[in-house]
Amino acid sequence: MNLHEYQGKELLNSFGVRIQRGIVADSSEKAVAAAKQLTEDTGTGWWVVKAQIHAGGRGKGGGVRLGKSLEEIASISSDILGMMLITPQTPPEGKFVNQVLVAEDVYYPGENDPEEYYMSVLLNRATSKNMIMYSTEGGMDIEAVAENTPHLIFTEEIDPLLGLLPFQARKIAFNLGLSGGAMKEMVKFVTSLYTAYVKSDASLFEINPVLKTSDDKILAVDAKVSLDDSALFRHKDLAALRDLREENAIEVEANEAGLNYVDLDGNVGCMVNGAGLAMSTMDLIKQSGGEPANFLDVGGTADAKRVELAFRLILRDPNVKAILVNIFGGIVRCDRVAQGVIDAFKNMGDAIKVPIIVRLQGTNAVEAKQLLDDSGVDLISATEFQEAADKVQEVLSK
Ligand code: GDP
Ligand code: MN
């Protein structure tokens, strides 16, 4: 689960990480009130208005703008709120902006230019250790740095038993070229950032930029936070931060019904039971020349109600041109599943406009195939896995 920047910053702040302060707003009146409040709290005279969407690269897409008066805040926030913001990380049509974060301007002109660093915390799956990645080359083009000058990106791995050790935090600050007060600030920043990561069961923190102000303060100007879904049950407060408007509508609905659905780019809908079978089904579809449109695991109880809901979800994706039902009857009997498919099909009437290939294997598979073939409904049955995939290709090429 991903958080918005403003939520991520609040989380960091609650662990003592210094942040660029801001107030979230969903109207331009509230944005102006937020700016006034920030001036009272921080003394800032300028503000940035930042679109809150679950995608980065907002600066490049016009979703982060500096305002130097309350009038500018009013007009910038009314421009950004309600816009379809297109960035290198959004779908081509962009993402709708429901909220903006009005933040204190922290790039105030000083004797030195502020420095921008990059810092992320994530799991290195190859070594099974968390690591901190960091670079002096922070700002909007970290992808280009990784591509062209990878030696400018450092990593520090953390032993899971020992945690982040003080010398590691000092090494990071040193490699970033810091000394004196800024070094102390950075050590504290890194230490509390890592604690926040571990304590919130996060899977990614990406802070880009981390800023050193002209008066040597280190603070998070941006925050991309992903939390581990499997650990959300022990963070009810964080789970409540979910913004369903940012998520795929079909995935949300499937989730509520206890179905495991993942949206993909192809045109073959897949209804299967079990994640392993889902993987091999997608492989076989691909190997036979097709592209899966989704991953849908109906789980153990493939009765008519669940099968019908699964069909309806798959069919909401307009790219679906055929559906492959591939179910293994272990505990669930194939003839029950077949009856479920037939009943769902009959219930849905004209709603099904694409060919459906059904392959049931396992307990009572023979009876199941008989039921399908005798049902009079327009289904294509198959016994073998490859046969089913071939039949999918056959209907697609028509
Ligand atoms: P992203 O583009 O989605 O990663 O959004 P960021 O939060 O990283 O903001 C993009 C850029 O806006 C940053 O790299 C900064 O250069 C700039 N920015 C952010 N906060 C301020 C600020 O307080 N003042 C000024 N002048 N620029 C800012
Ligand atoms: Mn950023």
Quick one: overall form? elongated
Structural class: alpha+beta
CATH architecture assignment of the largest domain? 2-Layer Sandwich
CATH superfamily of the largest domain: ATP-grasp fold, B domain
Tell me what the structure shows.
This protein has 3 domains: 1-19 and 108-246, ATP-grasp fold, B domain (D-amino Acid Aminotransferase, Chain A, domain 1); 21-105, Dna Ligase, domain 1; 248-396, Rossmann fold (3-Layer(aba) Sandwich), CATH 3.40.50.261. Strands 7, 8, 9, 10, 11 and 12 form a 6-stranded antiparallel beta sheet that branches. A 6-stranded mixed beta sheet has the order 13-15-14-16-17-18, with helices on both faces. Strands 1-6-2-3 form a 4-stranded antiparallel beta sheet. It has 13 helices and 18 strands. Helix 10 packs across helix 11 (334-348). 37% of the residues lie in helices and 24% in strands. By secondary structure, it is an alpha+beta fold. The longest helix is centred in the middle third of the chain and has 20 residues, at 180-199. Guanosine-5'-diphosphate is lined by residues 48, 50, 56-59, 64, 66, 103, 105-107, 139-140, 208-209, 221-222.
Furnish the topology, listing elements before pairings:
Elements: H1 5-14, E1 22-25, H2 28-42, E2 47-52, E3 64-67, H3 70-80, E4 84-85, E5 95-96, E6 99-104, E7 115-124, E8 129-135, H4 142-148, E9 153-158, H5 166-175, H6 180-199, E10 202-212, E11 218-220, E12 224-227, H7 236-239, H8 249-256, E13 260-263, E14 268-272, H9 275-287, E15 294-297, H10 304-315, E16 322-329, H11 334-348, E17 356-362, H12 365-374, E18 380-382, H13 385-396
Parallel strand pairs: 14-15, 14-16, 16-17, 17-18
Antiparallel strand pairs: 1-6, 2-3, 2-6, 4-5, 7-8, 7-10, 8-9, 10-11, 10-12, 13-15
